Structures are given as structure tokens and as C-alpha cells.
Amino acid sequence: MKIGITCYPTYGGSGVIATELGKALAKKGHQIHFISYALPFRLTNFVENVVFHEVELSSYPLFEFPLYSLALASKMVEVSLYEKLDLLHVHYAIPHASSAYLAKQILKEKRDIKVITTLHGTDITLVGLEPSFLPLVKFSTEQSDGVTAVSRFLKEKTLTNYAIEKDIQVIPNFVDTELYHPQKDCAFREHLAPEGEKIIVHTSNFRPVKRVPDTIRILDQVLKEVPSKLVLVGDGPDRSECERLCRELHLYDQVKFLGKQDGLVEILNAADLFLIPSQSESFGLAALEAMACGIPVVASSVGGLPELVRHNETGFIAEIGDINRMAKYCIDLLTNERKRILFSENSRKRAVELFDKSIIVPMYEDYYKKILEL
Ligand code: GMT
Fold first, then answer.
1. What's the whole-model pTM score?
2. CATH of residue 48
3. Fewest CB atoms within 10 Å of the CB: 1, 163, 349, 360?
């Protein structure tokens, strides 16, 4: 098949999934055309059957705001026509689904291009609900030839919040469990915790929805019982507030801010547990990556997280903002090595058996075939 893929190319789970999916499909012989304003950050090496098409934005004095959605639609038309694409698969509805709809209409007379939209999270649960976007998200989702959601939670939210009558297929996110795997004797661990302290890791884009300050407050409680370090990976709007909170709580030596990092597998392997106390999380790809490395997860009970993290089996789940309970769960795992190892094994097993890319990529292939009526 010839597939155009559009995603946000910068940091973020939707871009990771779109890029890894494209690379995996290319390996299977499909022709993949990424269409975006920059090279997706996971597309670092040359991959056979993968081409990148950059959406260029011209500035004109009259345009106070960049007209990206329109430039993207034009690029989709161009690539679909000249590369003879079968379908456009867009990740994250805003604005990609609308651009794809426009491209499909422009192409109508020349080519019947199918549009598949994958809903990832805040495109439905947060931004999409704003009055300025809601009608557009509803319309472009309904008009897509196929719609997938990354969790059952997100599917239900879409159907109820937007009163959409559409067959939405749940295709969960995936991880390459051969790449993300448990490693023994992580040298990095000594560097992070020279006194043999326990290590808790959190990775995110530090947006308010991730509730990163909760991780620091949880550590504050954990430290009363277990010498520990908190490793925060990533960057974003809440980072300064988190650094301020560390100073206020006199935790600056116990919390390491690593910023954006590429070597996630090494960092995860240095950890004893992973924390994800989000306000909203349609899936929680970061938690899946940790589980694939055999790291138990303590999570909030929101969105798709309970579909991923099994309470008292691969980790623990608590109410949003229940810092005391999350701290209690962390202490439990950090002081009971037998339980931690059992949860670690369960986490790895769950990632391999249910969310490995070898299982999920064929689901997308089958879905494409269904939409193309092959
Ligand atoms: O929806 C977002 O806020 C951005 C998006 C992203 O690009 O990372 O995150 C969502 O998609 C990920 C990949 O499917 C999911 O793992 C995240 O849970 C989801 N984020 C939220 O729902 C907040």
C-alpha cells in the first residue's frame, strides 16, 4: 500500500506511534510518505521505503498567523496525486483530520483517497472540546473514512462528548519490546543514586495535565521511609514550577532534572518504579515503555491508564491527586523487593503479550485493508 502519514514531528506519544508505525510498515514493503512541517524526531536514520515531504510555510504580511492547516492540505493533495497514495493516515485530529478532509474533497474528481484518523488524547479530551474546535473535530472525525482510538476510554469519550455515531476501532499503542527490554547491571544507576538509594522515574512533556509537581510531593513522603531519588525526564511549561517546588521542599539534591533525553531505555533500566500521576491520559505510552523494561508503574486511575496498568499486578492505581496513597504504594514496592520483582515480571509480560509492535502493527494493516475494501 502507499500511505501518507501526518503527525506532530516534535516530542509526544502521537508522533512516536505515527513514526514507529510508518517505519514498521515500510519494513513490510509498504511505501510510506510522511507529510509534516519537520522531520519526525524518531526518523533519524535512512529507512527504505520512507520519504519525507516537508510542508513549507510562506510568510506574507497579510497573514498574521501561519496558515499551516491549509498548507498541509495542499501538500497532502500534491503527494497523494503524484505518489498515487491509497490513503492518508493522520495522527491527532487537530488540525490534521481537517486538512485531510480538505485534501480529499480537492482530489475527489481525480482520486478516491481514503482518510483514517487516529485519535490520541487531548485532541478529544481537552483541546477538541473548546468551542473554537469542537464543531471542526466532530465534523472531520465523522467525515474520516476510518477512525481509530488508542484506548477503549478514548473511543467512549469520543462517542459521548461529540455525539458521534461512528464505528471507532480501538487499536492500542505499542512498543518495540526488543528495543525496550530489561537490562542487567545498569551503570547509570550508580551515577543517579551513588548511595544505593531507590530510583523513581517520571518522563513527560511537563504540561499541567501531567501533574509533575505531584511526583515531587510523592517523593517528599517516600523519603520519610525510603532513601530515594526522583529522576524527571523531559521538559515543558511546568518545569520551572517543579524546580521551584524542589527548592521550597529542600529536595533539590533528591530530584534530578535530566531534560529531554534520547537514551530512555538506559534511564528506565536504572529505575525501581515509574510514576505517572496524570490528570488525563488516554493511553500512557510512557508507562508502557517503562513496563516493557520491567518497571512497575504507579499511576492515577484516569483515562486509559487502568487498561494498561493492572492494579496490584503490574503496579498500582490511585485517584488523581491522591498523593498519600500513591506515596504509600511507592513505599510498598520500594520496601518489598519480592513484590517489586513479581510486578516487574508481570509488567514485562503484559507489554510483550499485549502491546508489542508485532501484534499491533498488523492491526493497522488489517484496518487499512478494511477501509480500502481490499
Ligand atoms: O494528547 C496529547 O496531549 C498529546 C499526545 C501526544 O502527542 O503525546 O498524547 C496522547 O497520545 C499519546 C499517544 O497515543 C498517549 O500515550 C497519551 O496518553 C495521550 N495524552 C493524553 O491523553 C494527555
1. 0.96
2. 3.40.50.2000
3. 163
